[in-house]
Fold this protein.
Amino acid sequence: MEVKFTPNGEQGKQCRDCKFFEAENANAGIGKCFGNDVPSGGSCNNFVPK
Ligand code: SF4
């Protein structure tokens, strides 16, 4: 499936709220999603709540 990523996710549906997100560097606002760096405020169509 094609991943539609947006750097500005909707409130409550952001990477930081997603079960696939591993907060690696919370201060920088960057975490890992399937091995890729993603901003904690981003979102995509694979979002699954924690
Ligand atoms: S699956 Fe999508 S919403 Fe979830 S952490 Fe990864 S990029 Fe963010």
